[in-house]
Write a structure and sequence with these properties.
This protein is α/β, with parallel strands linked by helices. 41% of the residues lie in helices and 15% in strands. A hairpin with a 2-residue loop joins strand 7 and strand 8. Helix 1 crosses helix 9 and helix 8 packs antiparallel against helix 9. The longest helix is centred in the middle third of the chain and has 16 residues.
Length: 296
């Protein structure tokens, strides 16, 4: 059986997880949306026949992106693991002259919302540092976001017909199972892989417990956000202000803010903004402007 996994950055983990679970029972390959030749490659893969024919396509994107090349019966839609419950302050940003393209800080698209707002509104790094406080987090409803994120993720599993038994164990495990809102740890994606196989009625060769921790996590090198202490304490976790983007390590928010401000100051004429999906969340749910103005 030839399986193609199509979707966002989680494709790397999904391919690895399915290979470990099926161990030789299927040939599993991946195609990420970040690949500029995605559409052409989909066409080429759909044209294969015989022993190289793609028998099953698994996608975490809208199915229509794939069904224009593959038969609907051969396509399975799965959820994206999107969970900001540990990191409600983490967002994407863009430059004003290219609003639909995510910006980059230290070769990474994720930044702190408080840092971005402080910079956008002309406040110093020192002034912005004062926002990283329990009272501010409370006023922004950061403390309530974990429950909303849980409900949203579990609902996405239900909509796709994927069992959430393993996911629920991660949620109550008292561990931070995400590197950031869109980068789950490999063990979470492995559990999704077993849910996919259950839905497809494919019997895995290996048990979940036997493959967790066996191989390196392909998403681990890119970034890792700590669960900030005011929120972590509420969740019964060990908190940290630690942030890492690739090999750039920021042990405190003071270090992070100084580096962030210095980096953006190199583009004084471009201006920055919240990426649209995050702008809506922060202005409609967190009421960012009105809340932070009260703490100035």
């Amino acid at each position: 059986m030839n399986i193609l996994v199509h979707g966002n950055c989680q494709v790397q983990q999904l391919v690895l997880g399915l290979k470990l679970a099926l161990m030789g029972k299927a040939n599993v390959t991946g195609l990420e949306l970040s690949n500029p030749d995605t559409e052409r490659n989909l066409q080429l893969l759909a044209s294969r026949s015989g022993s190289s024919k793609v028998d099953l396509v698994i996608t975490n994107q809208d199915m229509s992106r794939v069904t224009k090349y593959f038969d609907r019966q051969a396509v399975v839609e799965i959820p994206i693991i999107s969970f900001g419950g540990f990191h409600p302050d983490v967002v994407y940003f863009s430059f004003n002259d290219s609003p639909e393209t995510p910006g980059s800080f230290m070769n990474n698209p994720t930044v702190s919302a408080l840092a971005l707002w402080g910079y956008m509104n002309g406040y110093s790094a020192e002034k912005t540092l004062g926002f990283y406080d329990e009272s501010v987090f409370e006023a922004l409803a950061y403390m309530d976001y974990f429950d909303l994120a849980c409900e949203s993720l579990l609902e996405s599993y239900r909509k796709k017909g994927i069992g959430s038994t393993y996911l629920e164990k991660h949620i109550v495990s008292q561990s931070v199972f995400m590197f950031g809102p869109l980068h789950p740890r490999l063990e979470v994606v492995l559990s999704l892989c077993f849910g996919i196989l259950e839905k497809l009625e494919l019997t895995p060769v290996n048990r979940y417990e036997s493959i967790v921790g066996v191989v390196p996590d392909p998403l681990e090198p890119e970034y890792n956000w700590g669960c900030f202490p005011p929120l972590a304490e509420r969740l019964g976790l060990t908190g940290s202000w630690f942030v890492r983007h690739w090999n750039h390590v920021f042990p405190t928010m003071d270090h992070y803010l100084r580096s962030f401000y210095q980096s953006l100051s190199q583009y004084p004429n471009r201006g920055v903004r919240f990426f649209e999906r995050d702008r809506l969340r922060f202005h409609e749910y967190h009421n960012l402007d009105s809340v932070l103005e009260e703490f100035l």
